[in-house]
Amino acid sequence: MAQGQGRLNSSTKIPKGNLSDGNRKLDAFSKQMLAQHRKSLPIASVDKRLVEEVQKHDTLIIVGETGSGKTTQLPQFLYNAGFCGDGKLIGITQPRRVAAVTVAKRVAEECGVNLGEKVGYSIRFEDMTSSLTRIKYMTDGLLLREALLDPHLSRYSVIIVDEAHERTVHTDVLLGLLKSVQDARSKSLNNLQNTKNKKTNNDIQLKENGAQCLNFLKQYQGRTPLKLIIMSASLDARIFSEYFGGARAVHIQGRQFPVDIFYTLHVENDYLDASLATIFQIHLEEGPGDILVFLTGQEEIESVERLVKERLKQLPENSKKLVAVSIFSSLPSEQQMRVFAPAPPGFRKVILATNIAETSVTISGIKYIIDPGLVKARYYDPNKGLESLVVVPISKAQALQRSGRAGREGPGKCFRLYQEDQFGKFEDSTKPEIKRCNLSNIILQLKALGVDDISGFDFIEKPTRSAIVKSLEQLFLLGALTDDCKLSNPVGRQMACLPLDPIYSKALILASEFNCLEEMLITVAMLSVESIFYSPRDKKEESRTTKKSFASPEGDHLTLVNVYRASNEFLEKRSGLSKEKREKAFRKWCKENFIDSRSLRHARDIHSQIRRNVEQMGLRVASCGDDVLQFCRCLAASFFLNAALKQPEGSYRALANGEIVSIHPSSVFFKNKPECLIFNELVETNRKYIRNTTRIDYLWLTELAPQFYAVQN
Predict the structure, then answer these.
(1) CATH code of the domain in which 233 resides
(2) Please, are residues 110 and 135 in contact by the beta-carbon 8 Å criterion?
């Protein structure tokens, strides 16, 4: 991908005119360095060949190692070759928003344009494009949503599906959709061509009906075949080639230096402690080079980041030259760029990342990898109707991708925090997400696209019948589907318009009827980010006491609403300050209250976006005020599938499937357990925990969700 992205500060914009000679030299030097870097990428030597292959074939598979330059350079090659004629776009999809943003910024920098002009990006809740945009990076889910408005994706001449080897559910469905779009556009073009041939045989008719002819020519010129390029970092492209009828595959040779692999002698029971110890072992004993640590999520990353900073304080002055930075999917765009900036002179950088750093982004300077061998993934059990977030072992393919990150610029080392025989037990490749996730969201999108027969959709790998049936059942219970499995009107169509999980979309629609949409907007925004609160190891009691000041006796959802409103009040009182001072004060307030400022800032951005969405749909935004019972009833009506009843020994039984679960320690109900509650998430570690809970009356379920609950003695 965008190798070397950290060498320049893309956020710095030098104004035109009145530049000092020093700035002119710096600008010229920067351009020269960029040009040299682009020429040095493996893909640069095959640029003409790739363009020719795209011109010859409507579908092309490109296999290239991470760092070969395929993500940043190929769209530019195609743009320069004229693929954006008639105002057409080149679209590049990414499985992750971080990659879409960072790569778009890099390509804009290489093109010497402002982001949002010739080069832009679109992700959920954020659009940085304009009428000038011709190279557009976006998440695969966003292109699926775009197809709702433009089923033929007529604005695009080329679609590049990047990181296809990750096999996310959106990528798999997108490939099926693009296959049908290609067929539809080819048939449409052939029909127009035949019509054109017939018309040109009758010059008199053309002259007599000039207006009709002009309209036909415009229609003909606007239709072009869709060029589809599938890019993968995995060497095995057979599944994609076979799916697209034997599509041609092109391999780009990468650059890989030797990487020494080290395993642990014993099982590491606490991989976070082991990661921390290995960071400082490398820092104090190994030569120069940055460290990349793979962790499972935001909470772990921020915990290790704090521990690194605390441990540094205990070291001698000459050993403190280590700076910790992090990258994960929900990190705000401007903070994502910190990982690409080089460390200060004489310092070493340690990057704490999720599996996004396996292939989605390329970070310069990495020489050491720390790999605990774990990843956080969602697993759905259709028999129980239960989706859980589980930390599981990675695959062999993922382990190889991770170790390979140390050998992009020179010889490196990879420290695997597991034994060698454990590696042998890993699965060869990651199970496609479509085989292990709840399909209700994707089925809702397909229904909105006019796909009635879900089982008959041309999936690259079909999900199980039980998963499809269970997801259809869930959508029916939420009121999104009619008795004959069509999209309901207006509820189903409204739900499909919102870029949210179906259960959250339904909650917003219901909240308008319950006169508590203001509270539900806040709740959904806060639930759309990782944990708002954090609890440092050495300040657990202090953080618990502080959290109690926001706690609602009704549960975690209203507690989140209280946090959001407290932040609103804090910022409103400081509206007279400059943006920089206001932001600094906001971060300080968050720290004092043990609130994750990044998560809260992201939630505030999401709230603004979904508020615009519901207002455009005509939903009435009102507050329940002091009538919190109305809000709790709305939660019960929305999340009735996630209701649980207290058991005599203090655990809970999920009413939908009988699963025995426990309240997560982060909940306000951890000690004072109500008789009945609803929850939002099941997290599976050593036990099955439910998170984000609200107290409800059991009888509400039969009143508010009679389609699912029957009155029982």
Answers:
(1) 3.40.50.300
(2) no
